[in-house]
Amino acid sequence: MELDSGRSIGRPAGVIINGKNAKGDGSDEPLYTMKPGKTYKYRICNTGLKDTLNFRFQGHGMKLVETEGSHVVQNVYDSLDVHVGQCYTVLVTADKEPKDYYMVASTRMTKYNLLGKGIIRYTNGKGPASPMLPPAPVGWAWSLNQFRSFRWNLTASAARPNPQGSYHYGQISITRTIKFVNSVSNVNGKLRYAINGVSHVDPETPVKLAEYYGVADKVFKYNIISDEPPIDLRAITIAPNVMQTTFRTFIEIIFENPGKVLQSYNLGGYSFFVVAGEPGTWTPEKRKGYNLLDAISRHTIQVFPKSWAAIMLTFDNAGMWQLGSEHAEHRYLGQQLYLSVESEEKSTRDEYNLPETQLVCGIVKDMPRPPPKYV
Q1: Do 252 and 329 have their domain in common?
Q2: Of 257, 251, 254, which is closest to residue 233 (Cα–Cα)?
Q3: How far apart are CA 160 and CA 273, in angstroms?
Q4: Residue 198 and residue 338 in one domain
Q5: Which residues contact 125 (CB under 8 A, 6 or more apart)?
Q6: Domain limits at 106?
Q7: What is the CATH number of the domain that holds 270?
Q8: Could you tell me the pTM of the whole model?
Q9: Are 179 and 131 contained in the same domain?
Q10: pLDDT tens sequence across 307-351
């Protein structure tokens, strides 16, 4: 089951449950049945554009068992905050009085309250659902504490030999620390969002295509941002934002959010260990509080207002990968960048060559196809 906060840029809409617009008036509420005594698995995803959702089952607890491919310690929750781009799998047991119950999704940390309802019906149900809906929590501190309760289930996931999948990520030496700070400003009268002072814009030629054809210098410049944010984040440069990283190095990335709006980031092509998140600003001393044993391996991370979050990962997947905001308007208006990860061995073991059927565009459209780059 997927949840969509249904937000479009500049215009609110109803919360959507499983593709149906649930306005809460009883006219369009999706229905699911459960047999008494049975346990059911629900997968909850926030595929929206902007808002965090809180999801809850009326009168039922949710046993969390998985998030974004990782088995987690199986705690029971009355409700779950699901940030944009995140997914959770829960188990719900039909062990209550046989009747109808509501499942509820509502927006969180917004000035408005959008709410959607669905019905779960016991097969031997004898009554309608109570109109008294379970309330959503208040404030983002509650959400931060819930985030801290998520732990990797070390008895359920098999260890793998590579560092990224190993249980021993906390024992790997960090080779590089990158701090990303988001900002927003007006540039020539237009709103732009940025990471480390650069607001990304897509060039006419896709960055990976330019790199593969060996004409990257004619399309963009590497590393126009550094590993540390500039002092003045109000000054924003609009340009393609591509950062180089070294293949198979273990890196620490800090996301710092000085704004008042919760941020959510996704790193395509990778999962990473979410080792910490706190209010305030990050300093090296904060490493003493990292979870270096059982942090969740996932591919999205939320960063609360006036707070920071830290992740660790091994760049062991060669290619050109996007790191960007899951908030659609932020990403569209520049809050993203690309990470170029190239293997020095130029082997097809690490990266495939451009397919012969690949369509090309931009300045490489009429250029001869280069010989295979990887062998």
Answers
A1: yes
A2: 257
A3: 15
A4: yes
A5: 98, 99, 100
A6: 2-139
A7: 2.60.40.420
A8: 0.90
A9: no
A10: 999 999 999 999 999 999 999 999 999 999 999 999 999 999 999
